UniProtKB/TrEMBL annotation:
Biological or metabolic pathway of the protein: Cofactor biosynthesis; molybdopterin biosynthesis
Family membership noted in the UniProt record: Belongs to the MoeA family.
Protein name per UniProt: Molybdopterin molybdenumtransferase
Lineage, highest ranks first: Bacteria, Pseudomonadati, Bacteroidota, Flavobacteriia, Flavobacteriales
EC class (word): transferase
Species per Swiss-Prot/TrEMBL record: Lutibacter flavus
SUPFAM superfamilies, per database record: MoeA C-terminal domain-like, MoeA N-terminal region -like, Molybdenum cofactor biosynthesis proteins
InterPro entries in alphabetical order: MoaB/Mog-like_dom_sf, MoaB/Mog_dom, MoCF_biosynth_CS, MoeA-like, MoeA_C_domain_IV, MoeA_C_domain_IV_sf, MoeA_linker/N, MoeA_linker/N_sf
Length: 397
């Protein structure tokens, strides 16, 4: 049985990305969203010659002709309209954030002054033009593109939105996601499982993995009843853009998901990938609906979401995906000819990232994820991996 390789699976998934259009959100709620408009400076940055140290404002020419004592005419406060230095042999006290008074072009900070009876004595040999002044338009000019569209919005961009008065931001619309777990053995987190049951965990890890993308997902749990599965999933297919399943995609008698999806007209694009964990991964489309059916083992669900949903989402938002790498810190052996997502602990040394294997007891061992920082992607074409080699890294912390 020729399995779909990881690369082929990823290519199929990236070719199945969608575009959900754009919407406007309040700028303060836009962190994590993908910007869909160029952000342009409405004014110069800074908008005026900004005093950048508390002190006195003088004219360089007065200093250069030997004046060292300056009579204080007034105080230029931040937030007050611009004052004018009446006599260029005098000075005006000027505060950080204030407009530079007219006829002045140097600011000398209080630490270099002695002020007595309204006269400031300057203890300096030389001054240079525009000393301690953040010049108008030095950083950006009105009309400049400050932020290009398709950027993932972080706190830094929030400050720029506020500065230019951009209170509504055009962003990419996010897909509506429903995460579905299946299995009679699964009970609610708040319940005490009988000896044949376990508490359901995968939907919550998936919700939190999507939260890292600032995507809010709904969840549902369906028992291993084919008819119930079919009617509920039919409803979800109408209502949601993306369905993410966890479980019931392998060879079990109650693994109904593939046949139910098939009966509901979801076209299977592949089932079973040449990887571990996550081999029974099923992926399909129905028109612009996208279905990720991850294997039920918790680590399989976890790494498959990172490896496949994350890039799909980035492509759909047409923003860039961060690609990381790390150095294997010791030899590692993995026999099967599958791509192996090895759980690793990360350490930094001299600016390099080292990955130490924390293999765990298999893809059911979700507790092992607590001791891991990431997955190192070991290729499917060999079994020996040597210390010092560099491999792609999938982080989740
Ligand atoms: N004969 C074969 N058996 C299995 C194969 C195979 O190739 N041949 N594949 C194995 C692999 S690999 C995996 S992975 C699992 C995947 O099975 P399913 O996708 O059908 O998942 P389930 O059978 O529903 O559950 C597997 C396992 O995970 C637990 N589980 C499921 N959902 C949750 C949840 N929401 N929270 C916590 N734990 C969950 C479930 O109790 C099972 O223990 O199949 C192997 N079998
Ligand atoms: O392929 Mo499974 O997801 O390793 O257990
Ligand atoms: Mg199964």
């Amino acid at each position: 049985m020729n399995l779909t390789t990881v690369q082929e699976a990823l290519e199929i998934i990236l070719n199945s990305s969608e575009n959900f259009g754009t919407e406007e959100v309040d700028f303060i709620n836009s962190v994590g969203r993908v910007l869909k408009e160029d952000i342009v400076a409405d004014l110069d940055f800074p908008p005026f010659n900004r005093v950048s140290m508390d002190g006195i404002a003088i004219a360089a020419e007065a200093f250069n002709k030997g004046i060292r004592e300056f009579k204080i005419e007034d105080i230029q406060a931040a937030g007050s309209p611009q004052l004018t230095l009446q006599n260029t042999n005098n000075c005006i006290e000027a505060m950080t954030g204030a407009m530079l008074p007219k006829n002045a072009n140097v600011v000398i900070q209080y630490e270099l002054l002695d002020i007595q009876d309204g006269v400031a004595r300057v203890n300096l040999e030389t001054v240079r033009d525009f000393q301690n002044i953040h010049l108008k338009g030095l950083d950006r000019i009105k009309g400049d593109i400050l932020i290009e569209k398709n950027k993932m919005i972080s706190s830094a961009e929030i400050g720029v939105f506020a500065t230019i008065g951009k209170s509504k931001i055009k962003v990419a619309k996010q897909p509506k996601v429903m995460i579905v777990s299946t299995g009679n053995e699964l009970v609610k987190v708040t319940e005490t499982p009988a000896e044949h049951q376990i508490r359901r965990s995968n939907v919550y890890t998936l919700v939190s993995l999507l939260e890292r993308l600032h995507v809010k997902a709904k969840t549902a749990h369906i028992l291993d009843d084919k008819e119930v599965l079919k009617s509920k999933i039919e409803g979800f297919l109408n209502e949601y853009d993306v369905l993410i399943f966890s479980g019931a995609v392998s060879k079990g008698k109650f693994d109904f998901i593939p046949e139910v999806l098939d009966e509901l007209g979801v076209e299977k694009l592949f089932h079973k990938v040449k990887q571990r964990p996550g081999k029974p991964f099923w992926f399909g489309k129905k028109a612009n609906k996208t279905v990720f059916a991850f294997p039920g083992n918790p680590v399989s669900t976890f790494v498959s979401c990172l490896k496949y949903f994350y890039p799909w989402y980035s492509k759909t938002m047409s923003t860039s995906e961060e690609l990381n790498q790390a150095i294997l810190s010791e030899d590692f052996f993995f026999k099967p000819d599958l791509t192996y997502f090895l759980q690793v602990k990360l350490t930094q040394k001299e600016g390099k990232i080292y990955a130490t294997p924390i293999a765990g007891k298999g893809s059911g061992d979700l507790a092992n994820l607590v001791d891991s920082d990431a997955f190192l992607e070991l290729p499917d074409d060999r079994s020996n991996f040597t210390k010092g080699e560099v491999f792609p890294l999938i982080t989740f912390r």
